[in-house]
Every structure is written in C-alpha cells, then in structure tokens.
C-alpha cells in the first residue's frame, strides 16, 4: 500500500490494528511525517545517550586524575562549603589527622584543628567574604593520640560559575617538612660556599704557581742588592775597626794620616750612609713582595687599606711578564700616583689574572703588546687591560666568565681565572667586562669603588 512502510527506523511498517489510513484526505502524508519525526527523535535520543556516556567517561577520568593528584600531594588539602563543613580531603590530611575521609565529611573544619588554632581557622571564611584573601597561618592539626602536627596553611576562595563564594580550599604544608627542606637548602648553600672558597684558593695557588719564576726574579734583585751592600759594609766595618784600634794605640799624626789614606776612611764615611739606606730599601722591597705574596695566596677576608694602584699594576705586570718565554711589551697609561682605599689583595689577583690572560692571547707573537690604563671616574677606579691579539671569538664572548670555560688545551688552563676575577670584582661592589676592540684585540675593564676620603 504505502511506500513509507518500507522505510527503516524503529516505527517503520507499524500501524495500529484495525486502523487504515484515509487515503483520500491526505492521511498518507501525515502518517509519513509522524514516522519521520519519531525517527528523528529516536536518532536524537541515541546521539544524546552517546554524548552522555562520553561525558561520563571523561568525568570519571577527570575524577580519577584529580584523585591521583590529591593522593600524590604531600601537602594536606581540605575542601569546605560555604558553611565551613568539610566536603573533601586528601590522603595526606587523613594521615596527619589519623581519620578516614568518610569520618571527616560533613564535620566543621575547625574540629580537625587543636583548641589554640580553631579561632584562626574559624575566621578564614569571614575574611574571605570581606577581603577575598587570607594571609598564611601556622596552625596545628589535631592528630591521633593527642599528637599535633604544625602546618603552614594557605586559604583560597572556591567560587561557582557565576562567581559566587561557595566555599574555601585549605592547603597546608607540614612545618617539619619545611624545616627539613630549609635545612637541606642551607646545607647545600654551605657546601656551595665551601666549594667556591676551595675553587678560589685553588685558582690562587694555580696562579701563584705560574708566577713563581717571576716572583723569584723579583725577589732576587733586592736580595742581591742587600747582599752586595752588606759585604761592602762588612769591609768598611773592618777598616773602621782597624783605624779606631790604631787611634787607641796613640800613633803619631803622620802615621794616622797615612793609615786613613790606606784604609780609605773618608770614602768609607762618605759611602756608609747610602749603603745603609740602600740596604734598608732592598729589605723593605723584599718585605713588600712577601706581603703581596701572602695577601695574594690568603683566603682570609681582607680589610680595607689605602694603596697606590699604579704600583699594584706594575707589580702584577712584572710578575706575569717575567714568566713568559716570549715577553710582550707592556705600556702603562696610568698616573704615577693613583691612591685608593679598597681591598688590595683582591684587586692584585684580578690584575694578575687579566695580564696573564692577555699574555696567553699573545703567546708566540713577537709583536705582542699589552696596554694597561687606569683612572678615577665617578667614585670608581677604572682599569683597562688591552692587548693586540686575535680577540675573543664572538660565539664565546658571553661564556668567558663561566666557571671551567677555557679555550686552552686540556691540562693548560683551569678555566677559573676570569670566573674568580669576575666574582672578586662583584664582591667588592664593582664589575668586570670584556669586549673586542674594533682595531683588533681584546679589552677587559675592571671597575671597583673606592673610598672618597682616600688621598687623590
């Protein structure tokens, strides 16, 4: 009869018993429309059921995910409604409180804290309603067997989709865990500080080892001068002793004049003063070198002292250059007297490291030149060490102050010289920078503050 009876769908081909469609008045079209609508409704129901099942799966996955996150947290988590009743807790809270979640649900949140903490916890919700935030509090959870667990709690508001306050979330970290973390952090910091100190001493001794030959030569000059003067003074002393003994014996005037000429007493008297002064000067020079060495190698905290930067620059350059096989020329563009108040030993080591670095860059270059300049600028002493070597590779210039970074072959450099120098400059409130010169070569600039009361 009807072609619609062949259509697929849950209601296709089904007519009420004893009923027939009124063909003549358009009943067939109406019935076809009804069946189509019922098919659409059924399809919609199937689609809705499928979407609902998918949402349920996603909801279960989200629930499992949140549950696994809460279970993995070492911090305690408490979720409350707008009346301060517990809605959810995590396993860390169950462990700290000694009670299962099923025992805690619906209880006032204040019940799981000790008496001294309940007033502070009770004020969380009113404070959230008034200001929207709660400052961190240290409170005690009432643990099992009367044992209380001190926790540092943060409280944040919980809002619905329309922004209304529907509760709060308390997240607390056990203070004992924080203290343990702080102790571990402090131990790590102390270990790092000790390591840095050992690195500093190691680099100092490595630099000192490189400078031994130059320092020995530096010491040899005044010591030789002192020895020579002392031998001369010994001869002069013997002559004076002999002359005075003759005077005591009462020799004639002519005999004494002859002996005076023979012993060259007038020359002895003329030379003895300069010889003593020269000997003292040589001894003082030895003393100064030894003091510089002690200051250079010491790992003790330095005190501020007034010193001449120009002399320090000369000493640092002499120590380094005398150890080089091929000695570059050194030119100083610095006032004869540039006195500041600062930490002499640390600035000395910085300069030794910078001159050594420049000398290394010029190794094997017979035309190598190092120019060291210095001046006072805006409360700082600025010292520049410039060389005419190949410069710093552009891809490495940002790494040269990193520890253990070196361009030298293995075994020929520690990679700590510039790192230690940079940290020494910063520790004094200054800075150390590096740049390539447009005309070639590298330029290192060290800046350290000086006391304004130091003599100019």
From TrEMBL:
It comes from the Bacteria. Residues 214-452 form the Histidine kinase domain. InterPro entries: HATPase_C_sf, HATPase_dom, His_kinase_dom, HisK_dim/P_dom, HisK_dim/P_sf, PAS, PAS-like_dom_sf, PAS_4. CDD domains: HisKA, PAS. Residues 62-132 form the PAS domain. Keywords: Coiled coil, Phosphoprotein. One of its GO terms (molecular function) is phosphorelay sensor kinase activity. Residues 1-20 are annotated as: Disordered. PROSITE patterns: HIS_KIN (PS50109), PAS (PS50112). It is an enzyme of class 2 (transferase). Residues 35-62 form a coiled coil. Its EC number is 2.7.13.3. It catalyses: ATP + protein L-histidine = ADP + protein N-phospho-L-histidine. This is histidine kinase. It comes from Oricola thermophila. The lineage of its organism: Bacteria, Pseudomonadati, Pseudomonadota, Alphaproteobacteria, Hyphomicrobiales.
């Amino acid at each position: 009869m009807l072609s619609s009876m062949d259509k697929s769908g849950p209601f296709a081909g089904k007519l009420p018993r004893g009923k027939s469609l009124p063909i003549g008045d358009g009943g067939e079209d109406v019935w076809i429309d009804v069946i189509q609508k019922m098919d659409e409704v059924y399809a919609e129901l199937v689609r809705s059921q499928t979407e609902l099942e998918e949402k349920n799966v996603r909801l279960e996955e989200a629930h499992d995910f949140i549950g696994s996150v809460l279970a993995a947290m070492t911090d305690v988590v408490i979720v409350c409604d707008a009346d301060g009743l517990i809605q959810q807790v995590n396993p860390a809270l169950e462990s700290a409180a000694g009670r299962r979640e099923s025992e805690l649900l619906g209880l006032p949140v204040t019940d799981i804290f000790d008496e001294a903490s309940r007033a502070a916890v009770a004020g969380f919700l009113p404070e959230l309603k008034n200001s929207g935030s709660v400052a961190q509090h240290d409170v005690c959870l009432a643990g099992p067997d009367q044992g209380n667990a001190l926790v540092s709690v943060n409280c944040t508001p919980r809002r619905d989709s329309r922004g209304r306050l529907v509760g709060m979330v308390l997240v607390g970290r056990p203070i004992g865990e924080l203290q343990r973390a702080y102790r571990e952090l402090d131990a790590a910091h102390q270990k790092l500080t000790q390591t840095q100190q050992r690195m500093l001493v190691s680099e100092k001794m490595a630099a000192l080892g490189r400078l031994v030959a130059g320092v020995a030569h530096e010491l040899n000059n005044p010591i030789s001068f002192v020895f020579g003067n002392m031998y001369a003074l010994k001869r002069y002393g013997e002559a004076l002793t002999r002359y005075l003994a003759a005077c005591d014996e009462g020799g004639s005037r002519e005999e004494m004049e002859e002996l005076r000429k023979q012993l060259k007493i007038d020359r002895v008297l003329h030379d003895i003063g300069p010889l003593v002064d020269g000997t003292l000067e040589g001894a003082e020079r030895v003393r100064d070198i030894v003091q510089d060495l002690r200051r250079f190698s010491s790992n003790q905290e330095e005190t501020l002292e007034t010193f001449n930067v120009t002399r320090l620059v000369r000493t640092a350059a002499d120590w380094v250059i005398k150890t080089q096989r091929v000695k570059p020329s050194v030119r100083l563009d610095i006032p004869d007297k540039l006195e500041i108040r600062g930490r002499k030993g640390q600035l000395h080591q910085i300069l030794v490291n910078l001159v050594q670095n420049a000398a290394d860059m010029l190794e094997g270059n017979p035309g190598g030149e190092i120019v060291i300049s210095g001046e006072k600028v805006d409360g700082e002493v600025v010292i520049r060490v410039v060389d005419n070597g190949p410069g710093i590779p552009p891809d490495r210039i940002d790494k040269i102050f990193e520890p253990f970074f070196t361009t030298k072959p293995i075994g020929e450099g520690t990679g700590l010289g510039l790192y230690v120098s940079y940290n020494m400059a910063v520790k004094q409130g200054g800075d150390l920078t590096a740049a390539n010169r447009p005309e070639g070569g590298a330029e290192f600039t060290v800046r350290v503050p000086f006391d304004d009361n130091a003599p100019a």
